[in-house]
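Pipeline run #58 for the internal structure catalog. This entry was flagged by the ingest filter as a single-chain record with no existing model, so it goes straight to prediction. Upstream metadata was stripped on purpose; only the residue string is passed forward. Reviewer on rotation: M.T. Logging verbosity set to normal.
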Amino acid sequence: MTLAEALNGFVAECNQDPRLREMNRDWSRQIAIVATGHHGRRAVWLKSQEGILTSGEGPLASPDMEITAPEEMLIDIFSGLLSPTEPYNAGDLLVRGQQDDMMRLDILTLLIWGG
């Protein structure tokens, strides 16, 4: 599975869940995701607008939040195989942004995958 496929699955799960759409109706954010690895750095993104998530490839000019981690770890997190808590606490998952936004993304992951 690629990171783009994992993000697409994450987005689909969020958008299919009416309670998540309602919870996020007032959360408009652009989230840059930087995957590191043997290929160097690869940029993808998530956007939240009025309760709907979208994803894509490439950098964002002015992200509200940035997540950086090894690509395989990001794939595992966004596909529900790995909770972000342990890698974050170990310093392997770096998150820059507002604490409220970080908590919102954690809650989304927990509600979707049961982390």
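catalog note: The chain is about 45% helix and 30% strand.
catalog note: Residues 99-113 form the longest helix (15 residues).
status: ready for reviewer M.T.
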